[in-house]
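Schema walk-through. Below, the input block comes first and the output block second. Nothing else is stored per chain. Lengths vary across the set, and this one has 283 residues.
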Amino acid sequence: MDDLNGRVAVVTGGGSGIGRGIALALGAEGMTVAVADVRHSTAAAVAAEIESKGGCAVAIEVDVTSVESLAAASKEVAAWAGRVNLLCANAGVLARVGPLVDHTVEDWEYTFSVNVMGIVKTVAAFLPPLRESAPDAHIVTTASLGGLVSEVRAPIGAYIASKYACVGYSEMLRAELEAERIGVSVLCPGVVTSNLMATSAENRPDAFGLQPIPQLAAGGDGTGGASAPPLPAWALAPEDVGPIVIRAIRSKRFYVLTHPRAWPLVEGRFRAMRADFDFASGV
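--- output ---
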């Protein structure tokens, strides 16, 4: 999908963070953008931002954990735009910062309901119109650098496990849709200065219990929230991620990576794996 101008895109989690960055970049490329978010007000703000720059956008309220909500969103996009060429299944949450022993069952269930099953349900809802647009069709799922390598200095175990699952799902999806000429990419961003921790807590359903909002500076701010490591100086702004995604789509890349400097961490994981394969073979 080299020419994005005039095509139709759906971006879930498009009301903030990386989703907003992707939606703005797609709008700047001339795409008609359905900005979908669990909060209509944030989706509407991003849609208005796109239109203020001469683009075309609509705000859609959707809960990616709900099959019914996604079906309604798909019908709304069909009525509004008539087709879908690009699906960015981007909605995600970060439910807990802390050791695995501190993660509650509800933390795990909330994380996987959005980061894994939310993507599965989103793709299922929009795959029919994407098939109608093929070969002019593409899917981008949002995982994380934490879906390629785990790092104990980032104590977000449930999040990392969910992103590993997203990468595996995306690899299978790519292989299965290749014959239908529907492209698939998986976005694995490193640290981005989004408000993911805050929105995850604010949007967390009551059924999963309350969630403390981790503070971005070590030690917190005295409000009782859990502390999180300060963001590194090389963290990207969400607006920087959108153009990277577009370049990857045009180049038909599967892994969409934002931080090349993280390669030694990923390489170290595979070197350790190779060493264990050698051990198993008696080398």
